[in-house]
Design goal:
Elements lengths: L3 E6 L3 H12 L4 E7 L2 H11 L3 E4 L8 H10 L6 E5 L1 H4 L1 H9 L4 E4 L10 H21 L7 H21 L1 H11 L33 E6 L3 H9 L10 E5 L6 H11 L3 E4 L4 E2 L4 E4 L5 E6 L5 E6 L11 H12 L3 E5 L8 H10 L2 E5 L9 H7 L5 E3 L1 H14 L2
Parallel strand pairs: 1-2, 1-3, 3-4, 4-5, 6-7, 6-13, 7-10, 8-10, 13-14, 14-15
Antiparallel strand pairs: 9-12, 11-12
Helix pairs in contact: 2-3, 6-7, 7-8, 9-14, 11-12, 12-13
Length: about 400
Amino acid sequence: MDDISVAICDDSALMRNLISRVIDETEGLTVAGKAMNGQFLVEKLDLFKPDVIILDIEMPVMTGVEFLRWRKQNKVDVPVIILSSIAEKGAAVTIECLELGAADFITKPNGSISADISSVSDRLIELIASYGGSYARRHGKQVRSSDFFANLGSDRLVERKLASKMGADKAKEFLASTAAKPASPFGSSFASSEPKGPATIEPLRKPGRIEVIAIGISTGGPNALRDVFKMIDPHLKQPVLVVQHMPAGFTKEFANSLNKICALNVKEAEDNEPIESGNIYIAPGNYHIYVEQTPLGKKMLRLSQEPQRNGHRPSADVLFESVAKIYQNRALGVIMTGMGRDGAVQLAEMRKQGAWTLGQDEATAIVYGMPKVAYELGGVQKQVPLEKMADEISKLARENS
C-alpha cells in the first residue's frame, strides 16, 4: 500500500515542523519535502513529487498567491490546500487562491506561530486524504481509502476527549487495553468502501414542474461549483439554493467569485429574502438556510443558528428538509462531493415527496461520501459525472419548468 505524499510550504520553521509531525503520526501519509517559500517549492517540486501541497499565503521571495499563478501558467495539476493565518482576515485573498486553482483552505489556529495545530489536524488530514488520495489514485498509486482516514479521525477524537478527563498517558493506556474502535463521527458512509445497492423509495406523487433547485455539497465543493455554474444554462428560470460547507466570513466572497463566472446572479443569502428566479443563493457560513412560506404563499429564505446538524452549520439536511416540506414534488435536489452523510437523509425525503433528484457519481467526486449515502438510501434518481452535472440540471429544469 502506497502513502499519500505531502509537500509543506511555509516560511515558519515551527509550522513546517508541526505540520510534519501531524503527517508523520498519521498512517498512510508521508512528508515528501518542506519549503520555506514558493520559489524553493518551485525548484524542488520535481524532486518532491508530492500528491498534495500544503501552502501558506504570506511568505517572502514568492508568496502563496504567486506560486499558484506559476502553477497555473505551468499547468501543474498537483492539488493545493491553503493553510494560512491570512485566510481568516483576508477572505478575498483566500478566494483568489481558489480562483487560481487551490483546492481548499484551512485557517491556522491563533496565528501563524501557534503550537495549537491539533485543533485543525483532523480537518487537515481529511483534506490531505481527499485531494491527495484522489490525485494519487489517478496517477497509479494504491493508497488507503477515505473511510480509513475517517476512522483515524474518530479514534483521535475519542482519545482527546479521554485525555481531557484522565490525562494523555492514561487515555492511551485505556484505549490500548480495550482496543477501542469507536464508530466514525462522519457517518455510515464509511462503514464500507463498497457502495451498497440502493434502497427502494416509492414516491408519494409523480415528479412535477421544477420550481426550485437545491444543492448540498462539501469537500471538493468550491471547484466543483465553479465547474457547474460556469456551464449552467444562462436562461435558467428556477432559483438555486446552495449549501456549501464553508466557515463564516468566506461565503460572501465565494459568492462574488462565482458571480464573476456565472451568467446568473450569484449572491450570499439573506434572512427574510424573497426567492426570485434567475438567482443563485449561497448559504452564509455558520447559518442554516431554509425555505419558509408566508400566509399569502410567498416563498422566503430564512437563516438560523440552530444547533449543527450532522456536524455542520449550514447543513444540507436543513435545506432539503424545508424544500421537501414546502415544494414537495416541485423541486430538484442535487447532492455532490463531500465527506459524511449531510443531506442524504433529507434528499431521500425529497424523493419520497416526488421531487427530482441527482447525485454526483463516484468517479468524479473528490469524496464519495454524501452522494454515496444518499444513493444507498434510495434518494438519488440518477448519478451524474461532474462534467455533465450542469447540462443535466439545465435539461431537467428546462423540460420541467
